[in-house]
Structures are given as C-alpha cells and as structure tokens.
C-alpha cells in the first residue's frame, strides 16, 4: 500500500519524525486523514472517523529542505549536484584517463603527472520529488523510494 493519494496530508497530524542521515532514511509517523479512494475507508471504525496512523518511510533521501532553508529553490532533479563538465587547463598533467560504466554508475580515474590519482564517481539515479505539506510541517524531499505502513 504505497499510494500517497489515499491520504490528505494537509489535513493530517505529524506525530513523530526520525531522520537518519547516514543511511539516508526519513521516517514520518502521521495520524493521516484518509481519502474516499482508500480501500479501507469504510472498515476503519476503531479510530477517529477517517483517520489512520501510518508510517511513511523514505529511502535514499538525497536532500531535505525545510521551511527555513534558503539553499535550494528548485526540483532536485534539475540540479542534484552531479558533474556536468570537468576541464583541465593543461592536458599534459593527465597521463591516463580511464572510464568505467556499469548500469547507471560511472567512474572516472585520472593518473596525474605528479603521481597523485584522482577518482570521480558519478551515480545517476532518477529521484522522486515530494512537496510535503501537513498541519504542522512543510518540506521538500528528494528520495529514491518510499513505503507506507498502516498501523
């Protein structure tokens, strides 16, 4: 049940938020107002009318912009900080350039003239984008996948 359209988040209540920046996981515990499209809307009699406690788990979180952030103004898919141009003024400083591409990952290795090696790893995954608005919190989120657990 991973359909965010089944919940009216702007009429819901955020009960808890957990952020794990190391693993890139954001967990929201929400008392969510269900829409009439939700398959269990008529079966839910044990809680307040039309509300259900859910957990939304976002995995592969690339960025989180809260209301107080002035660093990001657009959808992250337009600019997620990937390298588009890498230029070297003096081409003699590079002895060898190796490119390796497997699936969506691309690695470039540079052997510089002074013996120092440089490595650039580019990972190209399309992010999903969510503009989250609820009763008490508003944020923008770029992530790879989500799951919804109904309690």
Quick structural gist:
0% of the residues lie in helices and 52% in strands. The protein has 151 residues and is mostly beta strands. The strands form 3 sheets. A 4-stranded antiparallel β-sheet has the order 1-2-3-10, with no helix packed on it.
Overview of this protein structure:
- This protein is an all-beta fold.
- It has a 4-stranded antiparallel beta sheet with strand order 1-2-3-10, with no helix packed on it. The chain has a 3-stranded antiparallel beta sheet with strand order 4-9-8, with no helix packed on it.
- The chain has 2 domains: 4-72 and 126-150, no CATH class; 91-123, no CATH class.
- 0% of the residues lie in helices and 52% in strands.
- β5 (94-102) and β6 (105-112) form a beta hairpin.
Q: Top keywords for this entry?
A:
4-stranded antiparallel β-sheet; 151 residues; 2 domains; 3-stranded antiparallel β-sheet; mainly beta
What distance lies between the first and last C-alpha atoms, to the nearest angstrom?
12 Å
Q: How do the strands line up in the largest sheet?
A: 1-2-3-10
Tell me, what's the shape? elongated
What is the overall pLDDT average? 72
Give the count of structural domains: 2
Quaternary form: single chain
Strands, total number: 10
- By DSSP (H or I, 4+ residues per run), the number of helices equals 0
Q: Give the ordered list of helices and strands.
A: EEEEEEEEEE
Low-confidence stretches: 68-72, 79-84
- Which secondary-structure class do the elements indicate? mainly beta
Helix content: under 10%
Query: Radius of gyration over alpha carbons?
Result: 22 Å
Largest sheet: 4 strands, antiparallel
Which strand-content bin applies to the residues? over 45%
């Amino acid at each position: 049940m991973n359909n965010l359209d089944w919940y009216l988040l702007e009429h819901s209540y955020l009960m808890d938020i957990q952020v794990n920046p190391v693993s890139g996981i954001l967990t929201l515990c929400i008392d969510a107002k269900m829409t009439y499209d939700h398959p269990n809307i008529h079966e839910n009699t044990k809680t307040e009318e039309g509300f259900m406690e859910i957990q939304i788990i976002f995995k592969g979180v690339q960025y989180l912009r809260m209301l107080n952030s002035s660093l990001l103004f657009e959808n992250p898919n337009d600019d997620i900080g990937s390298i588009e141009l890498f230029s070297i003024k003096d081409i003699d400083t590079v002895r060898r350039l190796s490119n390796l591409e497997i699936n969506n990952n691309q690695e470039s290795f540079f052997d510089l003239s002074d013996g120092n090696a440089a490595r650039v790893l580019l990972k190209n995954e399309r992010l999903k984008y969510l503009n989250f608005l609820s009763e008490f919190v508003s944020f923008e989120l770029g992530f790879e996948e989500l799951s919804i657990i109904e309690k």
